[in-house]
Amino acid sequence: MAVKVYGPSCAAAKRVLVVLIEKAIEFEVVPVDVFKGEHKDPEYLKLQPFGVVPVIKDGDYTLYESRAIMRYYAEKYRSQGIDLLGKTIEERGLVEQWLEVEAHNFHPPAYDLTIHILVPQLAGITPDQKVIEESEAKLVNVLNIYEERLSKSKYLAGDFFSLADISHLPFTDYIVNNMGKEHLIKERKHVSAWWDDISNRPSWKKVLELYKAPV
Amino acid sequence: MAVKVYGPSCAAAKRVLVVLIEKAIEFEVVPVDVFKGEHKDPEYLKLQPFGVVPVIKDGDYTLYESRAIMRYYAEKYRSQGIDLLGKTIEERGLVEQWLEVEAHNFHPPAYDLTIHILVPQLAGITPDQKVIEESEAKLVNVLNIYEERLSKSKYLAGDFFSLADISHLPFTDYIVNNMGKEHLIKERKHVSAWWDDISNRPSWKKVLELYKAPV
């Protein structure tokens, strides 16, 4: 039975879709229009009580939080397709470390830039320059640490592609392709090479082609 | 060789210490005085480039981000002490889901309450009531969802104690015991019973006894 992915157009869902494609897991999508507030519908809240996307249904099993869903499929189909968790417990530890860094250091300023640059563009309102400048400064600090890290290993968790890299795809794509901030990536040699590598994977290209971003 | 835990007095480090005690893993602690800025010392930044606590050293292996360290030891010593990851891949998925909920839904308002109630108390300055009210409102929403969840299972991920529960200990302890907000827990029957259960584990009592909070 195919995995049902709710809300495939949203950034967080794209993390999950990349994993499903990398693992050659059959899936179908269920659109959730967040601009119409469908993520707050009572039926949706039965699946995801916090009212955010994505959520998956796999037979009777329901799971939410994109980084949890990624881990679940990477573990369940560990030997199918590319291994996304590292080969040893120590490598898995580093995958977890960089997943947490993505969630706590990279994501907040990247998300704030998205909200304060892309949403005002779409709505035709004046963006809050102070928030944009503060978010960019935070992101610069994070990316400087990434540059140092990626001068020593090809990917974040080591010399192997993993969930930690995948988790960065949706918001780095916004930074590079939608908000005129590509210099943040391009002016850092190792970050730029890493981005070229991960963003050219067929799985990511397929996700971008199939599921247009709502912003 | 004992695991070295840097910054044992800080809230995030306490998550790690509980896991080490539950798993009967030998450890030693290395104090990091964040009030003196020791987490920004060049030597410390070599271990943890983002300048936050905790970090562990285990022989040649260094790992940071408390939730990543918890997962590493829960996996490495899976059969030693209590299993903290669930028995099946599906249970592990739910542990991951609730760890993510803790990180993204529970932690931000709980952290903001801590910063805006406890720090002003210590510094003798007037707290920002607006931030406190907004954070409390967010936390109420989260705890209402927890109440529903905990009416169906004894612990967050199911009828088994896991990392997802442990991850809530440090900041729920602040809420209940340090900031006069214990009603948030006590007035919810199932959340209150869950808190009584997990906060009475010998591992948590030992951590509280050994490592005083800096705030």
From TrEMBL, chains A, B:
The lineage of its organism: Eukaryota, Viridiplantae, Streptophyta, Embryophyta, Tracheophyta. Belongs to the GST superfamily. Phi family. GO terms for molecular function: glutathione binding; glutathione transferase activity. Residues 88-215 form the GST C-terminal domain. Residues 1-81 form the GST N-terminal domain. It holds the Pfam family GST_N. GO terms for biological process: glutathione metabolic process; toxin catabolic process. This is glutathione transferase. The keyword Cytoplasm applies. The keyword Transferase applies. Keywords: Cytoplasm, Detoxification, Transferase. It catalyses: RX + glutathione = an S-substituted glutathione + a halide anion + H(+). PROSITE patterns: GST_CTER (PS50405), GST_NTER (PS50404). One of its GO terms (cellular component) is cytosol. It is found in: Cytoplasm, Cytosol. Its EC number is 2.5.1.18.
